[in-house]
Amino acid sequence: MMNPWNLGQTVSSYFVDAWQRAILYADIERQVGDQYQAQRKVEVPNVLNFPAELVMSGLTLPRPVNYLMVRILAPEDQPTDPSKRPFLVVDPRAGHGPGIGGFKSDSEIGAALQAGHPCYFVGFLPDPVPGQTVEDVMRAHAAFVSKAAELHPESQGKPVVIGNCQAGWQIMMAAAVWPELFGPLILAGAPVSYWAGRNPMRYAGGLLGGSWLTAMTSDLGNGRFDGAWLVKNFENLDPANTLWSKQYNVYANADTEAERYIGFEKYWGGYVFLNDVEMQYIVDNLFIGNKLSTAQLMTSDGIRIDLRNIRSPIVVFSSFGDNITPPAQALGWITDLYLDDDDVRSHDQTIVFTTHDRIGHLGIFVSGSVGSKEHRKFASTIDQIDLLPAGIYRATVEETPDDDTLLNDPYLMSVRQSNLAEIAEIVQPDPESDRRFAAAARLSEINLAFYKSTLQPWVKALSTPYTAALLEAVNPMRLSYESWTSAHPWAATIHQWAENIAQQRQTVDEDNIFLEAQENFSQAMERVLNNYRDRRDSIYQIWFDTVYGSPLLMALAGHAPGDSVPARPHPGSSPEHLAFVRQQMHRLDGLLNEGGLLEAALRALFHIAKQRNSVDERYHHAAMRLREQYDTGKIDIEKMRAAIREQALVLAHHGHKAVEAIPHLLSKQTPEEIRLVASLIKKLISAIDEQDAAPEAVVKASEEVLGLFEMAAQQQEQGKKSDEADAKPVAKTASKTATKAAAKTTPAALKKPATPAPVKPMAQAVTKTVAKSTGPSSVGTTAKTATSAPVKPAAEPATKPLAQTMAGVPAQALGKAASKSATPSSATRPTPATGAANKPVATSFASGPLFPAEKAKGKPAVSAPAKAVSAGAKPGSATTATKPAAKAATAPTTPASKSAAKSATSSTPSSGQGKAAAKPASTGAASRTRQRKS
User: Fold this and answer.
1) Model pLDDT, residue 380
2) Whole-model pTM above 0.85?
């Protein structure tokens, strides 16, 4: 039986502690109220934890906005590297103030600075510019990115842009219209497909009858929408946290939670405003209409906003613990836009996604564990991500093995090939659900039109700046801060008591039974409120499905019962894109045997990496060590990226034949160069295998490609010996006449060979065909072509003009083709990775001036794929392109040289013929004898 005296002490100690905690909690809330008042008086309120200086203000743009860009000042002991690409962190304007991306040292900004990148932050003022629109903000983002690139001309890559939450879809819109400006995009908790998933928040628009309530709220605010209402919607998602847990945690830990809680409330209570046109656009086109993920939006100057136009890698970071932007809404746009994996590759788009198991929405931006792990790895590996070929990938960040020697980092990022099916498993597309949301969107349009026709004129007539200020003051979200500040009559007394308690604090023992009862009561309250939330959400879903699944409302959206037509049809492909894809297929057919050392090495590495389930950043670090060891010099990132993406497409298109063609790619290299590259490949693979044992398939693939390199080196050595032997007159043939003719023509062929001496990447296909067909007359080429003949594609197209084949020469040819052997077709046809000034083809789909009123007055928007088609090689261009080769081959007047020229011309595909290249005719017994000897 408990001692009554001990029981009395237990009771008294608990109630003393509880009373003191209550006073401390009240004083903490007073400080929060004072902070709210102080923030409202600041011209540019923010919660950035880093010093910064203004670089560019959106108020000075032709279409002014309330956004601005600042440069983050790096610490003196952590300077930035000017050669590294800059980072831009864009904060969401979703009710709160700016700064969440740099709220802590372990944040997105902190991770970028730690990796040595120059860093910029894009924030905003509390009040929008009158008349400011979403499109104006989109153009401002593009201007900020352009400015950052201009400030860093030495940067090896375009700026990286991080879009948090609502800022994610804003930067995607800008990157879709001006893809040439943007580097990799990192979308952190960004909703793009609002109908996807099972998030109860997606039902709100339909349950309220659509966006008419948004319009009325903006009208009552005299043309401005109070962001506090958006924050209220976020809090309604988790009533247990809003009504109990957040406050109880401060009360229960009043001695230690003050600093963290006050700092967080500085951000959470920093409400901002949006213009009525901005908010209406967002609700109608995104929240309810969900038009962005199906390319239904257009700019004011007629440019379609199609996310498939983005050419830089897109990194999507989401969490299953996020109840505001679940992974389905962050990834749903991929299943909305693409039919299959080939569709992703045909648009030259690289998508990398990663998911967290439990972190909440704000934790994606401010959590120290996420900042020191995922965001830091994104910043340190962004150059590697930028080199990934087109396709879908899944990234994971895990602890680095203890015995690893390549990576001096506690975490290791791995990337594996993913596909659209894996995305669909997360998103779980539901056509029936989409039809109900389409009905809700249609009803929203009807209700909005009815409100504008009846009530809106009266509401606007009664709304004034004074009534708007009154409604702002009595907003329940703002009232919670306004009601308890130092201006309150009791505030001074509470503050004095709190100071006294801090000096004479009497805490209760942790094993106090009343303290345990308090904790149990708190857990019970959380369970009750969570049960209420679950029941409420279930009712919302049932109500929504019942109302908008009814035949009447479905008919309003144009859907009959049993109709199989999707509510949101696939956006489809433009004729320009289909023509571009056909051109790319022809180009890939011609690239099978095109290239040199770089292309052969990339195919070899891709073939080996394909046998692994995933690759990690250790490959990059091992390659960098080899680069330093062999002093390879500065690498052009854009050219390397173009080469990697192109060879990945060649390998995917031709399969193993692309690997078999490696000896042919190396036929113009010296044995020393070939063996050096092979040794580098072997060292790179061995460096990884030392850390992780290589699977048997990887070992076989490594042996295969290294054997192909060695075979090519031996062929070149044999070719040198044949060149020395061929310095003498051509050997006798079975026919004396042919022998005499060949002997007479040999000096002429030596003086002026049919194949030009300096073989360029642009002309490799032509010169190798000429060399193969000329037989003994082409001195020094017979042995090489006999052993390293081009690999024929598995299935050649019906027509493959020479212009199309030669047009696809990659940018990584190091300028040789452009400067010495450029052809009309190669100069006029842009490709996804190359083209005029290395401008992506996608820019022609949507690219336009940032501010049309200034740069393109009255000019209609022109689609770039149409330009690409019109600028591409015409049927006659192939004939023009073959003239130099034909002329060089027919210069000698001897019979043997005429025969060589004839066979060279016949073996070169000609546009308009519609036939594959024919096999060269034999030049006689002498040719066969010569080939056997070689």
Assistant:
1) 87
2) no
